[in-house]
Structure prediction request, 125 residues.
Amino acid sequence: MKPYALAAGEGRAYEWHDVAFIMKAAGPETEGALALWELTTRPGEEPHIHTHDDVHEIFYVLSGSMTVRCGDQKFRITEGGFIFLPRDIPHGYTIDSEEVRMLGLSLPSSFGDNIEATGTPLTPR
Prediction:
Protein backbone atom coordinates (compact mmCIF):
# COMPACT_ATOMS: atom_id res chain seq x y z
CA MET A 1 0.00 0.00 0.00
CA LYS A 2 1.21 3.52 -0.75
CA PRO A 3 -0.12 7.05 -0.27
CA TYR A 4 -1.83 8.84 -3.14
CA ALA A 5 -3.91 11.97 -3.64
CA LEU A 6 -6.72 13.04 -5.95
CA ALA A 7 -7.79 16.55 -6.90
CA ALA A 8 -11.40 17.74 -6.76
CA GLY A 9 -13.48 15.85 -9.32
CA GLU A 10 -10.88 13.12 -9.82
CA GLY A 11 -11.58 9.44 -9.31
CA ARG A 12 -13.05 6.50 -11.19
CA ALA A 13 -16.63 7.32 -12.25
CA TYR A 14 -19.43 4.74 -12.44
CA GLU A 15 -23.18 4.76 -12.93
CA TRP A 16 -24.72 2.38 -10.44
CA HIS A 17 -28.49 2.13 -9.96
CA ASP A 18 -28.95 5.29 -12.05
CA VAL A 19 -26.65 7.37 -9.80
CA ALA A 20 -23.15 8.60 -10.72
CA PHE A 21 -20.48 7.63 -8.19
CA ILE A 22 -16.91 8.94 -8.20
CA MET A 23 -14.77 6.32 -6.50
CA LYS A 24 -11.96 7.97 -4.56
CA ALA A 25 -10.54 4.81 -2.98
CA ALA A 26 -11.50 1.15 -2.86
CA GLY A 27 -9.98 -2.25 -2.21
CA PRO A 28 -6.94 -1.94 -4.49
CA GLU A 29 -5.77 1.29 -2.83
CA THR A 30 -6.64 0.34 0.78
CA GLU A 31 -5.92 -3.40 0.84
CA GLY A 32 -9.66 -3.89 1.36
CA ALA A 33 -9.86 -1.74 4.49
CA LEU A 34 -12.35 0.83 3.14
CA ALA A 35 -13.96 2.41 0.10
CA LEU A 36 -14.70 6.13 -0.28
CA TRP A 37 -16.93 7.65 -2.97
CA GLU A 38 -18.58 10.95 -3.80
CA LEU A 39 -22.05 11.20 -5.26
CA THR A 40 -24.79 13.68 -6.05
CA THR A 41 -28.29 12.28 -5.80
CA ARG A 42 -31.79 13.69 -6.19
CA PRO A 43 -35.30 12.82 -5.02
CA GLY A 44 -36.45 9.62 -6.72
CA GLU A 45 -32.94 8.12 -6.80
CA GLU A 46 -32.98 6.91 -3.19
CA PRO A 47 -32.22 3.27 -2.37
CA HIS A 48 -34.92 1.05 -0.90
CA ILE A 49 -34.48 0.01 2.72
CA HIS A 50 -31.71 -2.57 2.67
CA THR A 51 -29.23 -4.32 4.95
CA HIS A 52 -25.50 -4.92 4.56
CA ASP A 53 -24.30 -7.98 6.43
CA ASP A 54 -20.64 -7.33 5.68
CA VAL A 55 -20.02 -3.56 5.87
CA HIS A 56 -20.58 -0.51 8.00
CA GLU A 57 -21.51 2.63 6.04
CA ILE A 58 -20.85 6.29 6.76
CA PHE A 59 -22.34 9.30 4.96
CA TYR A 60 -21.03 12.86 5.22
CA VAL A 61 -23.31 15.46 3.61
CA LEU A 62 -21.44 18.13 1.65
CA SER A 63 -24.59 19.99 0.56
CA GLY A 64 -28.33 19.50 0.76
CA SER A 65 -30.36 17.56 3.30
CA MET A 66 -31.67 14.05 3.72
CA THR A 67 -33.54 11.91 6.21
CA VAL A 68 -31.87 8.62 7.04
CA ARG A 69 -33.69 5.68 8.55
CA CYS A 70 -31.63 3.09 10.42
CA GLY A 71 -33.65 0.42 12.17
CA ASP A 72 -36.45 2.17 14.08
CA GLN A 73 -34.65 5.53 14.18
CA LYS A 74 -34.76 8.51 11.80
CA PHE A 75 -32.08 11.18 11.49
CA ARG A 76 -32.18 14.43 9.53
CA ILE A 77 -28.72 15.06 8.10
CA THR A 78 -27.86 18.47 6.63
CA GLU A 79 -24.73 20.12 5.22
CA GLY A 80 -21.73 19.14 7.33
CA GLY A 81 -23.70 16.34 8.97
CA PHE A 82 -22.49 12.78 9.41
CA ILE A 83 -24.13 9.42 10.09
CA PHE A 84 -22.72 5.99 10.92
CA LEU A 85 -24.84 3.01 9.81
CA PRO A 86 -23.78 -0.26 11.46
CA ARG A 87 -23.93 -3.47 9.45
CA ASP A 88 -26.90 -5.82 9.97
CA ILE A 89 -29.39 -2.96 10.58
CA PRO A 90 -31.86 -2.11 7.77
CA HIS A 91 -31.33 1.42 6.48
CA GLY A 92 -32.16 3.82 3.67
CA TYR A 93 -32.67 7.52 3.06
CA THR A 94 -34.88 10.10 1.41
CA ILE A 95 -33.64 13.32 -0.15
CA ASP A 96 -35.26 16.41 1.40
CA SER A 97 -33.66 19.04 -0.86
CA GLU A 98 -33.30 19.41 -4.64
CA GLU A 99 -30.17 17.28 -4.42
CA VAL A 100 -27.65 15.97 -1.93
CA ARG A 101 -23.93 15.87 -2.53
CA MET A 102 -22.19 13.53 -0.13
CA LEU A 103 -19.26 11.32 0.62
CA GLY A 104 -19.92 7.66 1.35
CA LEU A 105 -17.55 5.34 3.15
CA SER A 106 -17.77 1.59 3.59
CA LEU A 107 -15.72 -0.42 6.06
CA PRO A 108 -14.36 -2.74 4.69
CA SER A 109 -14.16 -1.88 0.98
CA SER A 110 -16.55 -4.53 -0.37
CA PHE A 111 -19.48 -2.15 -1.05
CA GLY A 112 -17.28 0.19 -3.10
CA ASP A 113 -15.64 -2.80 -4.77
CA ASN A 114 -19.13 -3.97 -5.79
CA ILE A 115 -19.91 -0.56 -7.34
CA GLU A 116 -16.75 -0.86 -9.42
CA ALA A 117 -17.46 -4.48 -10.38
CA THR A 118 -21.12 -4.03 -11.35
CA GLY A 119 -21.42 -0.33 -12.25
CA THR A 120 -21.12 1.11 -15.74
CA PRO A 121 -17.87 3.05 -16.17
CA LEU A 122 -18.47 6.70 -17.08
CA THR A 123 -16.14 8.79 -19.21
CA PRO A 124 -14.57 11.58 -17.16
CA ARG A 125 -15.78 15.06 -18.18
Q: What stands out?
A: The chain has a mean pLDDT of 94. The beta strands are 12-16, 19-25, 35-41, 56-63, 65-70, 73-78, 82-85, 91-95, 100-107, 120-121. The first strand starts at residue 12 and ends at 16. The chain has one domain: 12-121.
